[in-house]
TrEMBL record:
InterPro entries: GlycoTrans_28_N (IPR004276). SUPFAM superfamilies: UDP-Glycosyltransferase/glycogen phosphorylase. It comes from the Bacteria. Gene3D superfamilies: Glycogen Phosphorylase B. This is Glycosyltransferase family 28 N-terminal domain-containing protein. The lineage of its organism: Bacteria, Bacillati, Actinomycetota, Actinomycetes, Kitasatosporales. Residues 3-43 form the Glycosyltransferase family 28 N-terminal domain. Pfam families: Glyco_transf_28.
Amino acid sequence: MRILIITAGSRGDVAPCTGLGRRLLDVGHQVAVAAHPSFEALVGGCGLDTGLCRETRRG
């Protein structure tokens, strides 16, 4: 199964999602985590694909 986990917030918000993603990866799923680009190393370090979110500003 292909799974995309979408998360926002601080490292404390993103880290639990990487743990969940890693467990899903370990049982055979394809997992990507969409998070702010500053968390790319955290997500990639867990062996997960990254789906980077870009900041948008509304005028």
